[in-house]
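Bumping my old thread because nobody answered last time. Still need a sequence for this structure:
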């Protein structure tokens, strides 16, 4: 049985005693180290801690599996196991575990990606699998709501809005920020925007918003936002890589016609592609490819080019190039 969950849906009553009720092998796949921590803590809450042992995938050998699960013991084995980084297990070891006769206890295999080993496990169908999916970029509000609920952090609506707009929209960023706020306001009934801003630093680069601004030719706003990230080569390097891909997709968005259902991102691509000529888009791809290289080399020339483009964008009649 293969099941998929959104993070905020996984922590439900029906999963609370999952391991207590389960015997045999179970595989869990999480998208993020914080997600793994939260899911693990939630699942083992109902398990007798002394009977649960942790192993790394590198410690799992054929000899250990055969001795622990495939031979009769005079005393009977009651220990359950949590195996970290199960994606590193060799295929023959995964097959051996999947076929092991485990009764009265469990083996929880923890995967941290959806690559070859996980795909094989799901395809074979011999082991129940649980996938906790990464939130979509438009679900960041739900992600922050989940973190606040999980930590019992009473953020005011303006504070939540500011965090979504100001921080990288990842579980790690939201969770670490929420822990810091909780530490400083442990007994607050509601935490205000001002209290949050005293603790957190504005650091988010919203690549989808920036790509949309550029695609819609809102150049003053676009370049002004880039200037605000002066000095952060790594963050802008990642964004310039993303923007090149975005612009290439705009050159010919006809592939979207084959999709049965369009996402918000797909619709954005379609609407903005009509505003550009192919030659102009490819010139911009070349520009951002050069800027990506400057980021890689950590060349200060990049900031002069961005500031120059920003000044040009505010001057009527001047090209932004």
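Sorry it took so long. Here it is:
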């Amino acid at each position: 049985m293969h099941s998929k969950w959104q993070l905020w849906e996984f922590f439900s009553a029906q999963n609370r005693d999952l391991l207590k009720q389960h015997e045999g092998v179970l595989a869990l796949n999480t998208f993020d180290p914080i997600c793994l921590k939260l899911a693990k803590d939630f699942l083992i809450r109902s398990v007798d801690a002394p009977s649960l042992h942790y192993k790394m995938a590198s410690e799992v050998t054929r000899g250990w599996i055969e001795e622990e699960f495939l031979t009769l013991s005079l005393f009977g084995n009651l220990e359950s196991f949590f195996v970290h980084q199960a994606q590193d297990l060799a295929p023959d070891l995964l097959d051996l575990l999947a076929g092991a006769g485990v009764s009265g206890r469990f083996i929880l295999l923890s995967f941290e990606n959806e690559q070859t080993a996980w795909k094989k496990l799901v395809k074979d169908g011999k082991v129940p699998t649980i996938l906790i999916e990464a939130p979509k970029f438009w679900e960041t509000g739900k992600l922050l709501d989940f973190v606040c609920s999980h930590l019992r952090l009473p953020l005011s609506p303006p504070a939540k809005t500011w965090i979504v707009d100001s921080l990288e929209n990842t579980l790690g960023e939201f969770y670490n920020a929420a822990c810091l706020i909780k530490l400083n306001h442990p007994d607050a009934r509601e935490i205000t925007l001002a209290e949050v801003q005293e603790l957190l630093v504005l650091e988010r680069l919203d690549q989808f918003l920036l790509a949309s601004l550029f695609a819609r030719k809102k150049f003053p706003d676009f370049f002004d936002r880039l200037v605000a990230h002066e000095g952060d080569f790594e963050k802008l390097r990642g964004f310039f890589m993303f923007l090149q891909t975005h612009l290439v997709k705009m050159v010919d968005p006809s592939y979207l016609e084959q999709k049965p259902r369009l996402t918000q991102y797909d619709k954005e691509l379609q609407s903005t592609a009509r505003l550009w000529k192919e030659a102009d888009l490819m010139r911009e791809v070349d520009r951002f490819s050069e800027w990506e290289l400057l980021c890689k080399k950590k060349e200060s020339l990049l900031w002069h080019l961005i500031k120059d483009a920003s000044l040009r964008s505010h001057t009527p009649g001047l090209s932004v190039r």
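The two ends are 55 Å apart (CA to CA). Let me know if any region looks off to you.
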